[in-house]
Amino acid sequence: MNRLIKDGIIHDNQLHKQYGIGCVFGPNKQSIDDYPFTVYDTDTQNVHLVPSDEKALNKANVIISELKELTFKLLVENIKSCKICSTKEFDNTVKLNDDKWYVYGNSNGSLKCSNDEHDFKDVFLYKYIALRRNGITYELNFMRFFIDEYNRINCILESPQFDRCEGKYVNDQCH
Q1: How far is CA 131 from CA 10, 21, 80, 96, 104, in A?
Q2: ∠ CA(152), CA(154), CA(160), 5° rounding?
Q3: What are the pLDDT digits (tens) for 85-138?
Q4: Spatial distance between the Cα atoms of 40 and 148, rounded to a whole number of angstroms
Q5: Among candidates 108, 119, 127, which has minimal Cα distance to 65?
Q6: How many CB atoms lie within 10 A of CB 24?
Q7: Domain residue spans in the chain?
């Protein structure tokens, strides 16, 4: 469940840690927003930093959406034996061991908060492409996160990051 963080502290209950909220940077590492909206998903432990500046948000949305769509198209054209999946279909491929690539483009949906204070229906910054083969999930994100020397979570938009995980998603505790 997504929660809008209001007190400036992200509480990771699974790891018993706390993090501050950092900045959103562009690909040139210039700050886009020093005080972004912060959404924390308590189910997946994912953090979403959303620029409060609408112009910066819209620009990043367009660039990331175009990059994601082009990447998705190239993957599908160049991977032999792949199946494009819906969310439900993709979830059902975790235990398959058939050497086939399953691809999920995460093209629908929005960033929703449980407190309904904000509806981020026009935020596409955190859309990703997931591929799965033989139970191993590979996620291509179009942003990267880092924790700075002040223990704050920061985000660099338009900067691809690759994750490999065993299970449904990066922070999945499936073992």
Answers
A1: 29, 30, 13, 13, 6
A2: 150
A3: 988 998 898 888 888 999 988 655 556 555 555 666 667 788 889 999 998 899
A4: 18
A5: 127
A6: 26
A7: 2-6+31-166
Largest CA distance in the chain: 48
Judge whether 83 and 103 are in contact, CB under 8 Å: yes
In angstroms, the CA 158 to CA 143 distance is 5
With CA atoms as reference, report the closest residue to 83 among 67, 75, 141.
75
DSSP letters of 12-68?
Answer: ETTTTEEEEEEEEE-TTS-EEESS-EEEEETTT--EEEE-S-HHHHHHHHHHHHHHH
Q: In which region does residue 75 sit, left (phi positive, over 0), alpha (psi from -120 to 50) or beta (all else)?
A: alpha
- Cα separation of 107 and 73, whole Å? 12
pLDDT digits (tens, 9 = 90+) for 61-77: 888 888 888 998 998 89
Amino acid letter for position 162 = F
